[in-house]
Amino acid sequence: MLAASGPLTCENGHGAAAVPGPAELPAAVERVLADFVREESAALMAVDPALQPLVSAARAAVLGGGKRVRPLFAYWGWRSAAGPHAPLHRVLPALAALELLHAFALVHDDVMDRSDTRRGRPTAHRQLAATHTAQRLRGDADRFGDAGAILVGDLCLVWADRLMARADVPAAVLATARAAYDRMRIEAVAGQFLDVLGDCARTWSPERALRTARLKTAGYTATWPLHFGAALAGSGGAAFAHGPLGRAFTGYGLAVGEAFQLRDDLLGLYGEPAVTGKPVGDDLGKPTMLLLLARQRATPAQAAELDAILAAPRPDVGRLAAAVRVTGAAEQLSDMIGERVADARAALGSAPMPEAVRDGLGELAAAVAWRAA
Question: H-helix or E-strand containing 9?
């Protein structure tokens, strides 16, 4: 469970009632997303029933599971400034909107990576290609799937803006929060481009791999959701970012985000497909930190073995996993994850925040760093 602490009690707009705390937040976000997607899907279907494949793929991308990590980080950022009794329902749409942004990123990422599955189900482009085949449409099914998935991702990005606008906060507060949200989007695009470039580059350094992780993962997963949440409570902006709490969130977010990506590298080669929802070896063509470390540590014979495995048209994933482990790279990567969890907790240090926030973020750092999927 990627959450900590218990429920808060405050007014929810229908009288005094228990509202979700961090432990219940993922389910609350799920309900908000389900209601929103149902409304938006109905509006699209009213335009033309032929939009059903687009609507179905978008619904699956948003509601097909997920850890709802980004709203959790945003929640703790919000609670750090809003206090323990602020009415969460007012900002819940904005927190949930981060999952629509995430859906956009995943759908496009799957097209770029030619991934077949996501969370144990066909990816959007594969789902749409199957629709093309089932309906006996003209033209190339894969091209239709790719084009449709790009539009699914675009739709999720627009939906994120629409849902965020439902937050019950002053316009000036939402504008400040959107500045953090925009920074998050820009860094995610920059990191994704570096990720794509890494697939083609002749050389790639561990330093650049970490920079890619900071842009693609750290800022988008932890750092900017924290700043976004604080801004929703009226504490965002440049003054906050350069203050003690903003600096603590930035340091914490960078460390947690790197740990998240490093764990992703390990799961990509050693994870259980039934748990991760995608096959191992999906990132074999990428210069992941795990493979870069393996090459750095390898003896000449081990390097030759790695090269031979990766040069094969269909690399033997089990053989590669064993070859990487022999170099000690997997163990080193695990140590690096542990170091970053410690760095994340240290970054919170004596920053001015409620102890519940400090404890919750400490637990969340460990939960995402050592997750099984």
Answer: strand 8-11
